[in-house]
Amino acid sequence: MGKKDQTKAKSARKPEKGSAKKGAQGAAASAADAKRSGLRGAAPWAARHAAKHAAEARARNASPPPPGSARATLRVPEKAEMIKAKVAELHNAMVKIRALRKHATDKFFELGQVLGMIKDGRLYEAKGFNTFEAFVEREVDLSKTATLRLERVPRVFQEGAARELGLEAVLAAMEAIDGVLTGQRQPAARVQQQSPLPLKPPTGRK
Q: For the whole prediction, is pTM greater than 0.70?
């Protein structure tokens, strides 16, 4: 074989080496991708299968769970939105109470309205209390008895009349009402004294 023929043979073999190198690089890249995806040594269809499942999971998590499904039971507590709303309302109400408490002498009627909103809306349940009384005792920095009476002031008095009487008079009136309701009313003073019993007529001796 002449020199020209040897040169042609070498030049013909060069592309084959380049192709083999590119093939090796492609195989290495595929192996790296498979290693990153946890599918090393797996069949090509396994990667497509995993990608499909990942896309389905993303779509499923993005949509709201149907009622009664296991995903709804595990991930979304029952009445979660209602609980969130109650927590927010209770927080806002407590902020108002703290502000009104500093001016309770003038703002007692508004304070009673906020307390009534908490009771009527059962917002105390958002903090785990079963009764309004238990909530007042633990969360409101006021006398429990006075707070319970203040809550009832807007239910019993007109706003104008309550403001005209003032805080002390209104609380005294509520205390008197509570005494009547619980049967602890003091007996009313007698207007007239009872007439004395008639004496027996003297009996004559025989």
A: no
